Amino acid sequence: MTSFVLRRLVSLAFTLLGGFTVLFVLFFALPSDPAEVIAGGNGKNPPQSVIDNVTRKYHLDESIPKQYVRRLWETMTLSGESFRTREPLSDTVADRLPNSLRLAIWAMAIEVTVGVGTGVLSARRRNSLVDTASTLGTAIVSAIPVFVLAYLLRQVTGVYAFQHQWPEWARLPVLSEADRGWYLGIIPNLDQLEQIIQPALVLASVSTVVVARLTRTTMLEAAGSDHVRTARAKGLKERQVLSRHTLRNALIPVVTFVGIDFGTLVGFAILTETVFGWPGLGSRVARAAGQSDLPVVLTLSMVVMALYGIANLIVDVSYAKLDPRIRLGGAR
Amino acid sequence: MAAPLLEIGDLRVGFRTDDGLVQAVRGVDLAVAGGEVVAVVGESGSGKSVTALSVLGLHPHHRTEIGGTISWQGEDLLAASPERLRQVRGGEIAMVFQDPLTALNPVHTVGKQIIEAVRAHRDIGKAKAKERAVEMLGLVGIPQPQRRVDMFPHEFSGGMRQRAMIAMALSCEPRLVIADEPTTALDVTVQAQVLELLVESTHKVGSAVLLITHDLGVVAGLADRVAVMYAGRVVESATTPELFAEPSHPYTIGLLDSLPRVDTDVDEELRPIGGQPPSMLAPPSGCAFHPRCPYASAEHGCMHALPELDDRRHAAACWRRDELAGLRAAVTT
């Protein structure tokens, strides 16, 4: 098990290096001149002196391999700074990562409780009104683009609710900045809850739908398996049959999905972050990419990739715990 | 025969499907007395497993139609409350299923699954229940039961898994064990072993056995009585020696003729039963066996009237029962 984790961490390091290289190469493969973009924007013809200045200052005149080593070192030690804002990237990560994690954890909490709950309910009451309603509901939610859902929610709770004197709890201010000082890093106070609930809901929406459908399918499959009949035949209570022999088995693929999805929630929350002004990693990377801000793109992308890799590793390890038939890479 | 433990009367089971009602069981009478080993023999689709599952109400409710009576020590199980049925399951009547690989839950240890069964019926702690699990694994001949109890089903061989299933079934000392083709999924080499073990260990615990099988050969040495099923009905019922000595239904005769025997010439050909078992969506009129029966004749009513199981001690359901011995001799010579 330890050797499995070590091997996976080594291979993760190589994956990160590969990802880094691809991003680095893509940056220089772009048709626009990075120095020009940084100096004032593509097509705006900034003065040549400024461009030269930028080129020198950001070492863009060095040979590509030399720049590669420089950026790699910078990224690994978190010692770079933004081309644009000159903000040290260690600060950017320290600022943005907790916000991204908070949002992802809350979205995951919604995804698991609502998704699994709905899935179990519609599997238990198959073809009932509940099942039909959840099938329809999940179809609708998954058909609405995330940004539409986000704007809709914001409009209703942030604007309409205030205009029409809805009760206090239904009125959620349109915020811009998440407060610091969360209890234990992730537990919000009431104000912070008001801020996180909407982006978390929106971010969780697609995943929740997937989890609900997946849970329904795996529950139905597990419920029809022979060992559930055995469990019933030996006189277990329905509750035990459900929890120990149906849900327990049905959750194995769900755990895999949720774990891998966590990486996505951290790194690809761009739309949600943008609409709600949530200062996370995704929106910052997106902005930096548009500005040819290479250090920001590289460093933050690597943070997201590392999180993704670690989430995957945790999934694999817990998978072996959940399903004893799986052995970790022959180790044991 | 003592007062029966289990008495199934005119059991009818149908499954609603998109194609119509599949009449899996069409009026089965069957009784098992305390300590007795009764075998139900028939080919796939004859309704023998459906009959077995009906006793414990293990069919999916929403598409099953069930009629008749299932009387357990005088109590009607078809009318029992869910809680009462739960007590009977595993506590008074236990089941051993066909494929121990799928019948055991892969994510729990074998021990945990036995402990669960014990604690469903006895008010004892986990430690005590585990002792019981180890004891039961030892009883069914699993070596190093203290170690094996913490292993997962996939770490057991097929034969050992089925032994574990038997251990689980016997853990609460049920009055009756229903074994539904307990050896069909096993290697031929361990089939006999496991069957012997089943009968032996149930005997130790004092349970009766209802053994469901498609293999008449299996029955010979183990069962006290045999019921032969065809197309959802019992067509012959007798003590094992009587059945083998004087098979009284053409289907039973067919089954016996298709078995190799040690006491006859090796050159003698095995005669398979021709034709296919009928569709239970639309069973044939008259005797369900008539399309495959070499002795079927219209003048005896085989094609249009359903023969009932007669009430002799050696019961059979055939219009030409009393002529069979003569007819058979005429055919073979």
Task: Write a concise synopsis of the structure shown.
With 332 residues, chain A is an all-alpha fold. Chain A contains 13 helices and no strands. The model of chain A has no long low-confidence stretch (mean pLDDT 86).
**Number of H/I helices of chain B:** 12
Q: From the alpha carbons, calculate the radius of gyration of chain B and give it in angstroms.
A: 21 Å
Helix share of residues of chain B?
25-40%
- Report the mean per-residue pLDDT of chain A as an integer: 86
The fraction of residues assigned to DSSP E strands of chain A is under 5%
| Unreliable sequence segments of chain A | none
As a percent range, the share of strand residues of chain B is 15-25%
Coarse morphology of chain A: globular
Q: How confident overall, as mean pLDDT of chain B?
A: 89
Distance linking N and C termini of chain A: 6 Å
**The CATH class of the largest domain in chain A:** Mainly Alpha
- What count of helical segments of chain A does DSSP give? 13
The number of distinct β-strands of chain A equals 0
Cα radius of gyration of chain A in angstroms: 24 Å
Helix content of chain A: over 70%
- Most extensive chain-chain interface: A-B, 23 and 30 residues
What would you note in describing this structure?
The complex is a heterodimer of chains A (332) and B (333). With 332 residues, chain A is mostly helical. Chain A has 2 domains: 2-76, no CATH class; 95-322, MetI-like fold (Orthogonal Bundle), CATH 1.10.3720. Chain A has 13 helices and no strands. Chain A has helices at 2-29, 34-39, 48-57, 64-76, 89-124, 129-143, 146-163, 190-223, 226-233, 238-267, 270-276, 281-290, 294-322. In chain A, helix 5 (89-124) packs antiparallel against helix 10 (238-267). The relative contact order of chain A is 0.14. The mean pLDDT of chain A is 86. In chain B, strands 6-7-8-3-9-10-11 form a 7-stranded mixed β-sheet, sandwiched between helices. In chain B, strands 2-1-4-5 form a 4-stranded antiparallel β-sheet, with helices on one face. In chain B, helix 8 (188-205) links the parallel strand 7 and strand 8 (208-213). The radius of gyration of chain B is 21 Å and the shape is globular. At the A-B interface, helix 9 and helix 10 of A face helix 2, helix 4 and helix 7 of B.
